[in-house]
Amino acid sequence: MGDITVVIGNFQGQAVLGECLASLVAQTAPAAAIVVVDGSSTDGSVAVADSFDVPAVVVENRGLGSLYNRGAQEASSAYVLFANNDIALEPDCLKLLGAALDADPSRFAADAKQLDWAGSRVVHAHTTLRRGGLLREYIPGLRLDHLAGAAHIAPTGCATGAAMPRAPPNATAIIAALRARERDN
Prior knowledge:
Strand order of the largest sheet: 3-2-1-4-9
Structural class: alpha/beta
Radius of gyration: 17 Å
Number of helices: 5
CATH superfamily of the largest domain: Spore Coat Polysaccharide Biosynthesis Protein SpsA, Chain A
CATH architecture of the largest domain: Alpha-Beta Complex
């Protein structure tokens, strides 16, 4: 199973960070490391991380992407899982994500299905890519559907809150390959 460093981007997350960290500590396959990258919170978030013996790196808040990038610099494991502070993972989540990445070296990311807090509604799942309109799309001309179902491991066009190798392939090449796949289908 691949070793995974979990990077949690946090700003003013004191109320939710504890549940996130508790779910990570309870994993059946423990993370190689957990790091909270905090965007200069003033609410006690760093104390929550400390209570779980999880290091908190405090930096200027320049957005979630910047927090994740800083956390990736802290990672020395094969894989990195970028996680929001307001999630809780099922106990075998890291094991399954790592196994999915280990099973095929061509995979650049593994993304877990995400449910609402009641566990009754899918809020993010397998992402598909197809032709779309030019307006109101993430990528003009292409439609991303984040709620497509998948009964098994399937290729995805987007990974949010995903585990991925520390050096993912070039995004432009990935988009070109997805467009070619859509054209051929």
